[in-house]
Design a protein that fits this description.
Layout (H helix, E strand, L loop, with lengths): L9 H4 L3 H13 L3 H4 L7 H4 L6 E5 L4 H17 L4 E6 L1 H7 L7 E4 L11 H17 L4 E4 L4 H9 L4 E5 L11 H4 L21 E3 L8 H5 L3 H4 L14 H13 L8 E5 L11 H13 L3 E4 L6 H10 L4 E2 L6 H10 L2 E5 L2 H8 L4 E4 L5 H4 L8 E2 L21 H4 L3 H15 L1
Parallel strand pairs: 1-2, 1-4, 2-3, 4-5, 5-6, 7-8, 7-10, 8-9, 10-11, 11-12
Helix pairs in contact: 5-16, 12-15, 13-14, 13-19
């Protein structure tokens, strides 16, 4: 099997934000007038010209989803230049956005504390304190980009007169994306707000199609609030302290500042999205041979995979479990190129504008790939892909979509990407 080149089909399958504004506008046009400015306060028409002074953006996690939400923050700041704009986010992801000039404050939701043995009672007390903090802030606009019952609770408890989130899930239908070309429409994946969360919203974002990238989907909030339709700005702002820490970390592991660096991030949450250990090791050996320093990065959850890759590629620098999400971003920023699975690190690399290559199998790069970077995707053409299965036990084909991607395919694409960037 050969790697698929999406570039030629992009004019057909890429729905831009400007085009999707039209779709969302049409969806609003089909809402009866009584629902636009009725007694329930839905007021879609007046919402576009309304002014808000205290805004809460809700997107706690995961890393990739947080990166996808940054363009919404930027457009909110442009629309409401004098407003206080806060972001409810988990502590581990907060440093990705804390230094953003469009943001006023981060509101921390320590979700992981609920899973720590011996900390659950303390976590519950902190959760109630957070609810009181949100209530006291007196937000007048809350935008829930997360769309689950817990995030909807935050929106509802705020008491904000305007609470926006996605509409209830819609049915899947045939699309014009690469899914069609591969003769497969998966039955899994995002279809709208979940767990009944839409009940908490005063205004719901219509869902005209599922065949769209997540970043453009988040920007569907734009027509409701009168946000601009300029190209999305995904810039990540890192503190100088974070950058210096990563520089010191590399030096401690024998990577001087003037040495070219390749960063491999072999971890991801879904079992099915993992490319093979042998695959990453083969890429590492090739670039070590070419004179690059090669660093492995990831969370503590990824350490076992990284140790296996390091054992198969002597000379790599294993930094797994040693970086925060913000420090991971600084590490990727320092690199010549990053190689990832479909993961948050992929979206970080794309937001930083770095050369990068990502291996795809069970998921659709048109919907959640590196934004407007189809050339950075390596995958094989199989009729079962994408399937959106999360667990290997669900796959009846022995994970063929990932096993058939070879190190040579990835190295070839990396070299092309790096050459294009020069």
């Amino acid at each position: 099997m050969s790697s698929r080149n999406f570039t030629s089909s992009i004019p057909v399958i890429d729905l831009t934000f400007r085009e999707l504004n039209t779709h969302v506008g049409d969806a609003h046009a089909n809402v009866p007038a009584r629902d636009l400015d009725g007694p329930q306060g839905r007021g879609y028409n007046t919402l576009r010209t309304a002014e808000f002074s205290r805004i809460l953006l809700i997107k706690p996690s995961a890393l990739g989803d947080v990166v996808h939400t940054i363009p919404v923050l930027v457009k909110l700041r442009a629309r409401y230049p004098r407003a206080r704009i806060d972001w409810l986010i988990t502590p581990e992801n907060a440093e990705i956005v804390r230094c953003h000039p469009a943001l006023s404050n981060v509101v921390l939701f320590a979700r992981r504390d609920f899973s720590k043995r011996g900390h659950r009672w303390r976590a519950l007390l902190a959760f109630f304190d957070l609810l009181k903090q949100i209530r006291r802030a007196k937000y007048d606009l809350v935008i829930d980009m997360h769309g689950q019952v817990r995030s909807a609770l935050f929106a509802f408890i705020s008491g904000a007169r305007v609470r926006i989130g996605f509409d209830r899930p819609i049915r899947r239908s045939l699309t014009v994306s690469t899914e069609h070309d591969l003769r497969n429409v998966p039955n899994h994946g995002w279809r709208g707000a979940r767990e009944g969360s839409w009940i908490a919203y005063t205004h719901r974002i219509p869902i005209p199609t599922l065949d769209v990238h997540a970043i453009d989907r988040y920007l569907w909030v734009g027509p409701l609030l009168g946000l601009d339709d300029d190209p999305p700005d995904l810039t990540i702002y890192l503190s100088s302290e974070t950058v210096r820490h990563v520089e010191r970390l590399l030096e401690e592991h024998g990577v001087p500042a003037d040495m070219p660096l390749v960063v491999l991030v072999p971890g991801t949450i879904w079992e099915t999205k993992h490319w093979t250990i042998d695959g990453f090791a083969g890429v590492a050996r090739q670039f070590l041979h070419d004179g690059f320093a090669v660093a492995l990065a990831g969370t503590k959850r990824d350490q076992q995979r990284c140790r296996q890759i390091a054992a198969a590629a002597p000379g790599v620098c294993d930094l797994s479990g040693k970086t925060t999400p913000a420090e991971l971003a600084a590490l990727i920023q320092r690199a010549e190129v990053a190689v990832t699975n479909d993961s948050g690190s992929m979206h970080v690399a794309a937001s930083l504008g770095k050369p990068m290559v990502s291996i795809f199998g069970p998921t659709n790069p048109v919907h959640i790939g590196p934004y407007q970077r189809p050339e950075s995707v390596v995958r094989v053409d199989l009729p079962c892909s994408p399937c959106n299965y999360r667990r290997l036990s669900q796959c009846p084909f022995d994970h063929a979509c990932m096993k058939q991607v070879t190190p040579a395919m990835v190295v070839e694409r990396v070299r092309k990407i790096v050459a294009m960037a020069k």
